[in-house]
Amino acid sequence: MIQGTLRASRSHRQFLAPTLRSIASTLQQGLFAEELSGRAGLLQSVDPRVKIIALVELLLSISFAHSAWIIVAVYATGLVLAARSAVSPWMLLRRVWLAMPFFTIPLALPALVLTPGPAMAILPLGLIVTRTGAAAALFLLLRVSTSLTLALVLVYTTAWNDILRALNSLGLPRTFALMLAMTHRYIDLLLRATGDMLLSRESRLVGRLSTTDGQRLVGAAAGALLDKSIRLSGEVYLAMLSRGYTGAALGLEHLDLTGRDRLVLVVATAFSTAALLFGRYLSRGL
Amino acid sequence: MNPDPVFSVHDLRFTYPDGQQALEGVALELLPRECAVIVGANGCGKSTLLKILDGLYFPSAGTVRAFGEPLTQSALMDSKTNLAFRRRVGLVFQDPDVQLFLSSVTDELAFAPLQLGFDQPEVRRRVDAALVELRIEKIRERAPHRLSGGEKRRVALASVLTLDPEVWLLDEPSAGLDPRSHSWLIEFIRDQHKLGKTIITATHDLSLAEEIATTIHVFSEDHRIVAAGPPDVILGDHDLLHRCNLYHYHSRASQHQPEK
User: Fold this and answer.
1) pTM of the full predicted structure?
2) Mutate: best of B51, B89, B100, B115, partner A, most A CBs <10 A
3) For residue B159, which residues of chain A lie inside 8 Å, CB to CB?
4) Is A62 helix (H, G, I), strand (E, B) or coil?
5) Which of A133, A161, B95, B109 lies at 20 to 30 Å from A218 by C-alpha?
């Protein structure tokens, strides 16, 4: 029995507590994003198709920009738009730059010393930081942080189902959109089930588990969750069949764009084109 | 003379692939415009029977006829037959999280009529009407999985209402509902019945059965239908209800008699 093998061990707490925290945080973020997209704000009132096209245009313009100032200008524009849309720019800055050390900085660091060019600084072990390498690393950081910020602004100001509908009407196959929608929906459900499962176990646990017992219980929970998800997928398929599904993914068609949406699209396209042209032809560097 | 049955089931047996027996020699007839309630304890086979009546499972033995025609896998492989059957019969699943698989309430309500070939204006008309009927206009763009239990149940019903089926199959529709939602559900079922719909409800909630049933079929725990009749006769037979593990402290049957 589990009770009989309880031993003082830190590994159990080290594993379970962060898992529970992370599940709760994921759920809260989902709720948070839904709440933000429902607020009254500048971008919330724009058609999601326009927002997606504008995002793609801006991403292209910063990808081809040779001037850091242009990328910074697009970044600043993204933050201003966020502020006008009831999304805190500080929250965006925090979220983006907290992720950078884990994903982008490790990729940018080698460029400092591996890119050929004039020397800028000499590090221990004889590593030489080149000017070209520093510029490459800077551009990578700026492009990633700006892209991530713009994408977050889209996600925070647009309901998930509107994004999917917009992608669908912009050419994403309906079957793919349906798969994405269902994946998002059932990840949420299974996350909740996982959270409930772990909490229920915590509530019945006295003392601490040994590492082995902790691992065994985590394995059992994973198995139970897999079984649940397989059963659920079978039932969902039956529910689809029951309502006439025969393999064709159909959806309601979008209404026409309003005059305001068209104006936003023109402004976004003009801004992106200007950023692309200036960014392409201005001299490289700050 | 009785009208032709909507469903007629003879000597129905069903075994799941893992060997679990779900139905054992079930026989019943369900007539048009009746509000039939199938009562039974958990695990007796009610949900399986509803899935068979909806052409989602097919029996291991025995026959099922729907609207006078055999309801078989090969019959439903024909797209015209499948379309006609799905337009006439709607199933509301026990778990709304199974039934509601899309990312907005509007998409959920539009799913069935779009699949069954209605044009876009007609689908929009049906969606709008169902939103009003079920009083869920304010949550039309919400994600179904973020709704409360009562709201999910309303959306699940609305997702079938947009089909406007002749026959409603309801699997434990009162599960998890608070008293106000329970009362609302009873009104909804009565309204559909008044409109001439056939309602077939599987439940172990005897108070719901008492409120809506015109006929009650009783499942025993060995997966058979052991009795059928008018509500006052069936609900008055305390020995029968006790044998079938249907005593419920909310039920009138158990109010004056302690559980044995």
Assistant:
1) 0.75
2) B115
3) 243
4) helix
5) B95
